[in-house]
Design a protein that fits this description.
Layout lengths: L4 E4 L24 E8 L4 H11 L5 E7 L4 E6 L5 H11 L2 E2 L1
Helix pairs in contact: 1-2
């Protein structure tokens, strides 16, 4: 697995993302919804772990994938998430939702 991609509860997809927005670093969720956020300030695995832990505290979150190189955080959940709840969780981890 590339050093800049950390995943939890999500299997890694072979290959790399083209950056064109048509592919994802995490497989498509079987049911539910997927949202992509940009988080400012993450630089290491500990950062990614903190963001992941806080996001997984939100009811209904089933998986979180963090790409440190881009700051992109992909969240799978049972239903759409309230952006304010996501921002609060990221803030609690010590980072900023862009």
């Amino acid at each position: 697995m590339p050093e800049n991609l950390l995943t939890e509860d999500v299997a890694q997809v072979a290959g790399s993302c083209c950056g064109g927005g048509s592919c994802s670093t995490a497989p498509v969720a079987e049911a539910g919804t997927r949202a992509v956020y940009v988080v400012k300030g993450m630089t290491c695995g500990h950062c990614a772990g903190s963001v992941t832990a806080e996001l997984k505290r939100i009811a209904g979150v089933t998986a979180v994938a963090v790409d440190l190189a881009t700051g992109v955080v992909t969240v799978d959940s049972e239903q759409p998430l309230d952006r304010a709840a996501v921002a609060e969780a990221i803030d609690e981890a010590g980072y900023e939702l862009v």
